[in-house]
Structure prediction request, 179 residues.
Amino acid sequence: KGKIILKVEDAGKAYYMNPLTEKVHYLGRTDDAFRVMREQGLGITNANLYKIPVGIKSEGSDSDGDGLPDNLEEALGLDQNKSETDRYGYSDQTESENEYSPWGEGKQEIDKNFSDKQKGKIFLQIEKKGEAWYINPEDGKRYFLGRPSDAFAVMRNLGLGISNNDFNDLTFTEEEGDS
Prediction:
């Protein structure tokens, strides 16, 4: 439930199994993946989203060289031109990876119980621009699904490879038109 599944014997076709409905959705083309995010994503407030630690699997340019791609920094509300947004001595990446606040002093207000209950879900950040986040069932961290390259990096890096036989043995309902 909630995993991204990659059919390794079928050209790496990717599927998302919604943990709430237990339906599987095909993530093949960019349009397919973004449709699944829109249709299966749940709205979340910033206050609740910030309770979930940040995972880093995004790709792209990194203007300030801090290890966080510009598009992830923009989604997180960090300064893309400063490697250390809050000026407390550690890079934005170091603070994010260690659950310290890259926005100010101290630790992020992570709620492990809340985060654990969200594993496998896709969230849409309703108080910003509708940014999409995937909560990885393995580590409970949120991964940015902004651009197609970000979404496919998450699929590639966090997906579970599975054989065609094992895929066919799964108990699920495939969404109509998602084959």
Remarks:
- The mean pLDDT is 87.
- Residues 23 and 172 are 6 Å apart (CA to CA).
- The longest helix spans residues 30-40.
- DSSP finds seven helices and nine strands in the chain.
